[in-house]
Amino acid sequence: ADRDLYRMSRAEANDAAAILEIGTGCFMKEDYSSAFDYWKKAAKLGDIEAHYNLSSLYYEGKGVEKDESKFVYHCEEAAIGGHPLARRNLGAHENKNQNDERAYKHFVIAASLGDDESLKLLKEGCESGKVKKDDFAAVVRAHKAA
């Protein structure tokens, strides 16, 4: 109870991390509409995890209507901030739209940030000839360093 009061006081002071936590608590209780409201506020304060979470809500249509452009917008904001899963999701989105070159660029960045799944996708691209072996080797080195 004291922790909740402390978190609320931090949220009232526009602490993005506290607002994100409250939104996550709402999400865990399947109160997607409230989660959206809190995450939207945290995103406006620059929280990249909030942007990523909003992208997921827009993608899945939880608490909001599905909206591809808002999904992409929030993924881009999170990816620019260094969120590897948002970067991978942008790659998947580009891949779905048959923009292979853009997709692989996103996967390279995500893998360089330590995302294992993106590395796996790039390995498949290397095996199929879509990704150069030298490029893949460089990504593997960056992935190990992440």
Gap between N and C termini: 38 Å
The main pleated sheet reads as:
none
What is the helix/strand order? HHHHHHHHH
User: How big a fraction of the residues is strand?
Assistant: under 5%
Put simply, the count of helices is 9
Name the poorly predicted regions.
Answer: none
Rg computed from alpha carbons, rounded to a whole number of angstroms: 17 Å
Give a short overview.
The chain contains nine helices and no strands. By secondary structure, the chain is mostly helical.
Please explain how this structure is put together.
This protein is mainly α and 146 residues long. Helix content is 78%, strand content 0%. The protein is built from 9 helices and no strands. Helix 6 runs antiparallel to helix 7 (100-112) and helix 7 (100-112) crosses helix 8. The longest helix is centred in the first third of the chain and has 13 residues, at 16-28. It is elongated, with a radius of gyration of 17 Å. The relative contact order is 0.08.
Keywords:
single chain; about 150 residues; 9 helices; about 0% strand
Layout of SSEs?
Layout: H1 2-12, H2 16-28, H3 32-44, H4 48-60, H5 68-80, H6 84-96, H7 100-112, H8 116-127, H9 133-145
